[in-house]
Amino acid sequence: MLESIQNTVKYIKSRIGDFEPEVGIILGTGLGGLVKEIEVEKQLMYSNIPDFPISTLEFHSGKLIFGTLAGVKVVAMQGRLHYYEGYNMQQITFPVRVLKYLGIKTLFVSNASGSLNPAFKKGDLMAITDHINLQPQNPLIGRNEEELGPRFPDMSQPYRRDLIEKALNIASANNITCHKGVYVAVTGPNLETKAEYTYLRIIGGDVVGMSTVPEVIVANHMGLPVFAISVLTDEGFTDELQPVSIEDILKIAEEAEPKLTLILKELIAGI
Which stretches make up the Nucleoside phosphorylase domain (predicted)? Predict the structure, then answer.
């Protein structure tokens, strides 16, 4: 893996020159619009980057965007990878390792998720304070490369508390509803049944989604601070569960995106 990371980083640096990103951003389903706020210097298609997995979803464009956001040099993944696409966990998290080797000091992650908490409504945001991993694989299984991180990484604080508090303060100052809570990661791609939503709430979840946790595990393995935020696109706590389509999810995510963009921009400006 280490050789693949080094080869990929070498290729990317040959295309971006002396650009050195300070911040990495992973944009979730329906949340790629933040790229419009970036003063773009370079764009690389995943398909042209050696060993880089390619997003198979039509609403994930599959680009690495290099530029400046709020005065900070950033690299944004416009399109992420998911376990349900058929990739293994090492492939899904490979881009995080590459971003770390490109020089980022902090990782920002966004996603679209379903609410399990009756106090959290569609269109709200939630800063992730902790997670429950129900995905069947772990990206750290297999031989451990000591240069990448320790065999048994600590996960007592997977999400940076100072960034969470700053995000909540930014939201409050701008009249944005932003909760904090626990994210449950499942495989997907189907949405959950009523009984599954109930179970996930009982075990301590506030929202449920199909991504984020593998990337966060690897970021922690490499000593990379993380801030993650969810846009709540559907509700799984109602007495009569309503059908949800991907079109519905994308619509809610698009409507909520300006709020998420504002929070991320102000957070990154303070880095």
Answer: 23-269
